[in-house]
Write a structure and sequence with these properties.
single chain; alpha+beta; Beta-lactamase; Lipocalin; 2 domains; 8-stranded antiparallel beta barrel; 4-stranded antiparallel sheet
Length: 329
């Protein structure tokens, strides 16, 4: 529950994009990571693992003797009158369910399909802002959990993490929060318990993170300066400069965000293109000679240079977070 198990997240396996639309049994999904060595000794450090949440769902089913979806319905959704929340289904028609999208360049596309047996307890739920607020308010009471369990859940154990929550300081206040994303959707929920104030942002374009919106809304409430989104304008960079960036960049295996991800940068008919693993190529537009952006996304790609002007890596900035990749080819 603290993401310190060392178990490899199945969503980081190389074949994940090719298999996420195919239904699985618990046994077949767990077999993907069951025999892999731990990435570190349990408790040594924090690393988010969707495999951990999947296993927790299996444990709930085995201990309760009931399907995970039914257990949540009877123990959370019904008691809290969360009538617009539930376990998602790729086949079932769900009234008012939003569609998920992504942007590629200036085109808006349907998100890639994913069978809900894949995320399972790691992210197969649907909800609304109103229902999530009901859940948030219940966490101030003992209606769902005992006070002891709530205290354990909200006590940081490693890397500012409680049981599933990030527990930090922002604007001079404690904030307890979690972000989520799945094909075509992103979500952010931030709780400021000292002020009894909560921000919930749900989005159905997977190319845009909800975290910057949540942080800006929080800043407005607390009277803290914040930045409005600015239109990005592309400039012209000569082909020789663009050619320097061509190559492959790899995220280190111990990186907290997207470890082992490979970024392939190519120059095609004067256009600088970036491909992440096996995802479609996306054009990079220059804001300066080293800073680039993608239309229809809030991400920035910054190329790193050494003292001699050689390209050594790239930095991806998105939603107030950043990850680095080293140039390997």
């Amino acid at each position: 529950m603290t993401h310190t198990s060392g178990i490899t997240s199945f969503t980081e396996l190389p074949d994940y994009p090719k298999t996420m639309a195919l239904p699985v049994t618990h046994e077949s999904l767990m077999a993907r990571f069951r025999d892999r060595p731990l990435e570190f000794s349990p408790g040594e450090k924090y690393k988010y693992s969707n495999s951990g949440y999947y296993l927790l769902g299996v444990i709930i089913e085995r201990e309760s003797g009931r399907p995970y979806a039914d257990f949540l319905q009877d123990n959370i959704f019904k008691p809290l009158e969360m009538t617009s929340s539930g376990y998602d289904s790729s086949r079932r028609i769900i009234k008012n369910r939003a569609s998920g999208y992504v942007t590629q360049g200036e085109a808006l596309l349907n998100a890639l399909p994913i069978d809900m047996s894949i995320p399972f307890a790691a992210g197969a739920l649907t909800s609304t802002v109103d229902d999530l607020l009901r859940w948030d308010q219940a966490l101030y009471t003992d209606k769902l959990l005992s006070r002891r369990s709530l205290d354990e859940m909200f006590t940081p154990s490693n890397d500012e993490r409680g049981y599933g929550w990030a527990i930090r300081q922002r604007f001079g206040r404690q904030v307890i929060e979690h972000d989520g994303s799945i094909n075509g959707f992103t979500a952010s929920l931030s709780r400021f318990p000292g002020d009894r104030f909560t921000v919930i942002v749900l989005g159905n374009n997977g190319s845009f993170l909800t975290r910057p919106i949540a942080d800006a809304l929080s800043a407005i409430v607390f009277g803290v300066p914040y930045n409005l989104p600015q239109e990005r304008r592309a400039i012209t960079v000569d082909a020789g400069t663009l050619a320097r960036y061509v190559g492959q960049y790899q995220v280190p295996p111990d990186a907290p965000l997207s470890p082992n991800t490979v970024h392939t940068v190519t120059l095609e008919n004067g256009r600088l293109m970036r491909q992440v693993n096996q995802a479609p190529k996306v054009e990079l537009f220059a804001e300066s000679e080293t800073v680039f952006f993608m239309k229809g996304s809030d991400a920035q790609v910054v190329f790193s240079l050494d003292a001699a002007g050689r390209v050594t890596g790239l930095i991806v900035r998105r939603g107030g977070r950043e990850g680095t990749a080293r140039k390997v080819k």
